[in-house]
Design brief:
Helix content is 0%, strand content 55%.
Length: 155
């Protein structure tokens, strides 16, 4: 369990966890990004690498990739399966997405509030479902990829 942290002004990731069946909850992650270690450096507020994650109750704000590097509020790894991302508040993401399931299967995004997420509110590189999310200010589209809307309560 990673909980109740205040994580401010990190260069690459605010929180990065390599584990399965883990919980990341009730954290404040702000002002992440700006690393010049590599050109086009990505930045992630929360990055989860493993299966069966629960990521909930977090506030993530101000994530900025360098150059063409990704800026993502909450992301799962390409090989992660069955992550649940719910009841998070995500805002002011520089480029890519508020929530990005990079790959894997059976992900769920539920009850998230996402403002100014860059290109996409919630993006699926793998499969999953989303319900009861609110996305405001995406520059491309609110929902992208192979995720399936579970009802009509996404705005």
């Amino acid at each position: 369990i990673v909980e109740d942290l205040i994580v401010d002004s990190n260069f690459g990731e605010g929180i990065r966890l390599y584990a399965s069946k883990s919980i990341i909850r009730n954290n404040l992650v702000t002002n992440t990004g700006g690393s010049t270690y590599i050109a086009n450096s990505p930045a992630y507020g929360i990055y989860a690498d493993g299966d069966d994650f629960s990521i909930h109750g977090n506030t993530v704000s101000g994530v900025t990739g360098v150059g063409s590097g990704y800026g993502v509020g909450i992301s799962t790894d390409t090989s992660s399966d069955r992550s649940i991302v719910h009841n998070n508040t995500i805002s002011n993401i520089s480029s890519t997405a508020g929530i990005w399931f990079q790959g894997g299967t059976q992900h769920i995004a539920n009850g998230n509030r996402i403002t100014k997420p860059g290109s996409y509110g919630i993006a699926f590189g793998g499969t999953g479902s989303y319900m009861d999310n609110l996305v405001v200010g995406a520059t491309s589209t609110s929902y992208n990829g192979t995720g399936t809307a579970a009802g009509t309560t996404n705005y």
